[in-house]
Amino acid sequence: MGMTGYVDFGYVTFIALGAYGMSLGITYFYQVEGLGIWIVFIGFLLALLLASLSALLEAFIALRLRGAYFAIACIGINEGLRHFIEGAKLWGGSEGLIFSGSLIQAVGRETANQLTTFWADLAVFIIAALAAFLNIHYMRSKIGYALTAVKEDEDAAKVMGVNTTKYKTIAFLTSGLLGASVGAVAWGLKLGYVFPGDVFVIHYTVECIVVVLLGGAGTLLGPVVGGLIYGLSKYWLAIIWPGFQLLIFAPIIIIIIVLFPEGVVGMLKNRVRGTALERYLL
Amino acid sequence: MLKVENLESGYGSMQVLWQPSIEVKRGAITSLLGPNGVGKSTLLWTILGSVEPWRGSITYEREDVTRLPAHKKVDLGITLVPEGKHLFVEMTVHENLVMGAYRKEALKSMDESLALVYTLFPVLKERAKQKAGSLSGGEQQMVTIARALMTKPTLIMLDEPSQGLAPKLVGEVFATVEKLKAEIGLTILLVEQNAEAALNASDYVYIMHEGTIKAEGTSEKIRKSHEIREAYLGI
Predict the structure, then answer these.
(1) Which of A250, A271, B7, B58 is deepest in the core (most CB within 10 A)?
(2) B150 touching A, CB under 8 A?
(3) What is the pLDDT of residue B90?
(4) How far apart are CA B93 and CA B97, in angstroms?
């Protein structure tokens, strides 16, 4: 997300669709004989498929709208999907899908327990590692080069021959697929249910964006550092001053963003520019 | 070298180009003059392929390139220096230039291109390690032109290169444009509002108005025609 400079307010849509993909896979396939544990993989594939479709939709919009207009359009997709699922009673409508029972029926209680705890957690770590790897790979390859150009100045990128359409689509697809993977395992598989009102929540996207901006957009360590700062301070504020944490938290975030517009890692990166340390700050 | 015939394009449902036709001859400076908002920039972006043509044709080196997307046009040796300063301001001058050599072919001859650019603009060599955003207006314009040269173009389109520059620097920019033609034999399509300076530098001139070409001729002819000067150029 940080790489293209398009602030994606629709990130939670990917996570939500990931959760839905997994839920659908398990809900609709658990009675099919002989599939057994494969329904989890079907769910995962459905998650990827749904997210790819919405990522392509977002890329399609990003090719036409920029800046705040793009952000608003993404919020629109998110809210639209939620209301569509609720209103059209699609996929269980507002009652959601509850499938922990189905999973137990398909694979047995023991396996289901292991899947929702150990394997789901392991999968999240693998996805995180994969995300980090892709991030490094993109930053050091032609893709990163092209995305940086798009982020800094799209017109300049065009005149030097960057296929802006292609790279924006790659960026959205990557972000969509990773988001959906997280949604499928960390939300869908782990919880065993999904409700539209729970997953299509803009608040999560805002938290994601705050985390990325705090740490530094377009850096690898940024989101990790941002996540630590955000998570820990939110936790401690809730203990020290329960009920008021968000009231205090908002101005703190504003101050940090004003002081370090490039995020903590972004700022450190600028400080060590040209020194030996630069290589280690990604 | 480049032939545009009855081109139509625009944004959304708003038509901007109403069938202008122009021809750019190899090794010459061709200018597109006219007031603000008559579609000069749109014509350039449509030629590059970033704005989609609706009707009409674009021929480059006798090949039909009407529907070719921008990145393929860059491969063919067409590039555009956009209006305003589209620099990567947070990067150094050198990094900006390296970014310019993005396409495969351009990357292969990057060292060559860098040497050429630094000979053409010695001041950029002095500033190579400085952030592009910290340069003066005239120098930034040089970097934009230099970065365009890094794509190894044969046809370079310049969109108002003298915009927002002090009168003294305007002269410098035009000197640069003439240098591109004389020293590396580039073909240039120039869009300008500064009619006087453009007339002096150009070989052939098109006058654009309301999305189409209203008059054309050698700069001599345009300069001598009171009618054209009064009606369209206000000089």
Answers:
(1) B7
(2) yes
(3) 83
(4) 6
ipTM of the complex: 0.83
Q: A-chain residues within 8 Å CB-CB of B100?
A: 160
Euclidean distance between CA atoms B18 and B11, whole angstroms? 13
**Which tokens in the block code for residue B149?**
């040269």
Pick the CATH number of B2-77+153-233 from 3.40.50.1260, 3.30.70.360, 3.40.50.300, 3.30.420.40: 3.40.50.300
**Do the Cβ atoms of B43 and B17 come closer than 8 Å?**
yes
Which of B51, B78, B83, B86 best tests the A interface by mutation, with the highest count of A CBs <10 A?
A: B86
Instruction: Single out the residue of B107, B131, B108, B128 nearest to residue B117, CA to CA.
Output: B128
DSSP class per residue in A35-93:
TTTHHHHHHHHHHHHHHHHHHHHHHHHHTT--HHHHHHHHHHHHHHHHHHHHHTTGGGG
Residues in B 80-139 with any Cβ partner in A closer than 8 A: 80-82, 86-91, 99-100, 102-103, 106
User: B152: burial class by Cβ within 10 Å (0-12, 13-18, 19+)?
Assistant: buried
Closest CA–CA distance from residue B234 to any residue of chain A (Å): 31
Backbone dihedral angles phi then psi of residue A258, each to the nearest 5 degrees = -70, -40
Q: In residues, how long is chain B? A: 235
Distance CA A136, CA A18 (A): 24
Q: Which of A206, A209, A196, A174 is nearest to A79 (CA)?
A: A196
How close is the nearest chain B Cα to the Cα of A139, in Å? 14
Q: Taking CB atoms and an 8 Å cutoff, what residues of chain B touch A149?
A: 88, 99, 102
Q: Inspect the interface and report whether the beta carbons of B91 and A160 lie closer than 8 Å.
A: no
pLDDT single digits (tens) B42-88: 999 999 999 999 999 999 999 999 999 999 999 999 999 998 878 88
**What is the amino acid identity at position A222?**
G
Q: What are the tens digits of pLDDT across the range A89-126?
A: 778 777 777 777 776 776 677 777 777 777 878 888 88
Say yes or no for a CB contact (<8 Å) between B103 and A163. Answer: no
Residue A58: name the closest of A17, A19, A9, A21 by CA.
A9
Q: pLDDT value at position A281?
A: 58
Helix (H) or strand (E) segment spanning residue B191? strand B187-192
In whole angstroms, give the CA distance from residue B10 to residue A217.
35
Token digits for A258?
Answer: 């004003």
Q: Where are the domains of chain B?
A: 2-77+153-233, 86-152
What the block records as the tokens of B7 is 């081109």
Which residues does chain B have within 8 Å of residue A161's beta carbon, measured at their own beta carbons? 70-71, 74-75, 79, 102-103, 106, 151
Q: Do A161 and B91 touch (CB under 8 A)?
A: no
For chain B, what is the radius of gyration of the CA atoms? 17
